[in-house]
Amino acid sequence: MSGQGPQGADYGKAGASLMAAEENWGAFIRADCDVVSYVFGQGTALGMTGETCVVGHYEARIATLRALMANYLD
């Protein structure tokens, strides 16, 4: 995002927005996956289901970022 881009583009703001989105995304997955820990308490399934929650969010986010790169940044 170091280029100028098309007329009216502001890559600096786009980069700042992406950084803010990443920070907020991290807070979201922590809160969203906390639901699992509150449901399972200290049960034996907590570790596996909690990790599954986090991994699922990361897989989805990576797919979203790849689509962003392919559609807008290449």
Q: Roughly what percent helix?
A: over 70%
Average pLDDT, rounded to a whole number, is: 84
Low-confidence stretches: none
> Total number of β-strand segments?
0
Proportion in β-strands: under 5%
**In one word, what is the shape?**
elongated
Q: Indicate the structural class.
A: mainly alpha
Instruction: Please state the CA-atom Rg, rounded to the nearest Å.
Output: 17 Å
* C-alpha termini separation: 10 Å
* Tally of alpha and pi helices: 2
Quick one: biggest sheet?
none
**N to C succession of SSEs:** HH
Quaternary structure classification: single chain
In short:
The protein contains two helices and no strands. With 74 residues, the protein is an all-alpha fold.
Describe this structure in words.
Helix 1 (11-40) packs antiparallel against helix 2. The protein has helices at residues 11-40, 46-73. The chain is elongated and about 55 Å long. With 74 residues, the chain is mostly helical. The longest helix is centred in the middle third of the chain and has 30 residues, at 11-40. The mean pLDDT is 84. It is built from two helices and no strands.
